[in-house]
Prior knowledge:
Blueprint: H1 8-20, H2 36-47, H3 54-68, H4 76-94, H5 98-122, H6 132-156
Helix pairs in contact: 1-2, 2-4, 2-6, 3-4, 4-5, 5-6
Amino acid sequence: MNRANAIWVIYASLGCALLLMLLPLPMDWRMIRPDIATLVLYYWVLALPHRVGVATAFTVGVMQDLIEGAPLGLSSPGLMLATLLLLLNYQRIRQFDLLQQSLMMLVLLILSAGVEQWLRNGIDLPASSWSGLFGLVCSMLCWIPLRSALRHSRRYYEVY
């Protein structure tokens, strides 16, 4: 496969992850919904930091806001800050084992959610409940299989 044409895999995986946000869940299960789109973004930042960066994080954040019906720009600053930290430390994080990487993803997800909550408080939106932390822990647990699946697709389609 031509390397120049394989970039579509990045955007297709991000698009599929955003579409997964549209799946309806019972009200009781919504608090444990993993943030797949953010994890896919973080994977591509770790795998290909020269192709995926802060601008992609901004776009994913705006798309998440559109899907959730939140004010535009609510998710973007947190995602951009976490992506920037990931870009500054990607070589170190790549060397971590899977458990350490999962914990690092949890830290980045908490940072992103914290910035989003801070912005919610600033514009007088209702605060998210503490049950949202279950979703972050569920996202951390989803990191290992998601990383394996995306890594397999990156190697299969020769995305470099």
